[in-house]
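ingest -> fold -> write
write: protein_1
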Amino acid sequence: METGRDRGESRSVTQRALRLLAAFDTDHVALTLSALARRADLPVATCHRLVGELVAWGALTKVDGRYRIGHRIWYLGLLAPVHRDLSEIANPFMQDVLQVTKNVVNLFVLDGDQALLLERISSTQVGPAVLRVGDHVGPHATAGGKVLLAHARPDVVDRALRAPHRYTRNTLVGAESLRRELVLVRRHGYATTVEEVAPGTSGLAIPVAGHDGTVFAALGVVIVGNRVNPRPLVPVLQIAARGIARQVRLAAGYGHESLAE
């Protein structure tokens, strides 16, 4: 049974953790441990312990010796009213991609260890949809999912690759082969698939990233009946992804600096 002392200690730890998160703002997006302790007005030892727990949970991330707001905060932020409408923010940019490429355009986010199709735009010429908005799919089998996995935490990748489902005979399900492919996705900046979710379809996707490099969505196209050619498609998707990221940042009240910068 929780005692009054237990509740007081929990509140104290919670308040300290919140003070650490509140130390970040638009002028202080990356902080050393000593700077973080100073801005949160906490002893360095206490700061070090709490920061370790926040990093483990994903609320903070460490890059080049400095701490930044982590991906879990971004994902929670997507639940707030302004970010909950990510699909609405992305829609005009996805329409542009549709007009230029004439291909189905998808927007994926990670939901646990599954890829969630958040938005889909297509012309009337495309046949029946393989996936519909709101559907979940193994991220190993879609271009968007592979992009998200390539930038996900190791534990998320481990869960996603533990027993990947084979959707077609072309679905890559070997864990080591998939890990090698994720390395290539990070290196090239895009992912592709060929008939891995459904016969007769190929996919290409790129990351949509925050100002700190955190990938919070994947924007892609689906090509019906042909193999994907990344060369003409990647630049179109990159322009749209930067636009989406910029508008998300503006909607969150972070001024005019591009989220992708």
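write: protein_2
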Amino acid sequence: MALYKTITVNNDTKVLIWKIEESFEELNRDMQLTNHCQQRLDGMRSEIHQRGFLSVRHLLAQFGYTDFDLFYDDKGKPHLKDGKHISITHSFQFSAIIVSKSIPVGIDIEMQRDKIVRIAHKFTPLYEYRTLANHEALVRKLTIVWGGKESIYKVYSEKGLSFLKHIDIDDFSMDVSHTKGNVYYGNETARYALDFLEFEGFTCVFALEENRS
């Protein structure tokens, strides 16, 4: 099985990344799913999505969990029955989960693609990136910003939250691999620590909630 990377964020929090190299049959062998998740799997038209879904269950097993330890609330946010915090992501041939005993967390993996430049105006002011040296640097940085906002969105999990209007990412150097993000929504504010890494043309960003008031 293809456990790709393990990141120990702190004593309470760990990230696991899986490279999906197995076939659907290999990933599905002896897999036990809840009725809800089996129906979700059966309803997926894309084998890539099916393999991503199953690889997440193999990542759960690395933490000692099964699909029966996982449930989703009415917003689609995953939870663990033992009360630990979890977030899940998969994109093409990679999937990842983050689990924390004590801190609300979110995670996102994205493939680095030119498309991010075309849609950037929907989630961030493009003029903020005018100093970047070249197109590749722009794609990389925008992918990190998108991943940061997506991971924060997964933690905050409020209907109507806008990437463009309500979530800000502090400026950062590509060499540092971490930054901060903020949510300003209604009368609430929240602050998040963000870490990111790049590998094989993909970007992974994970968020840890620092405060929410």
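write: annotation protein_2
The first strand starts at residue 3 and ends at 10.
The mean pLDDT is 95.
pipeline exit 0
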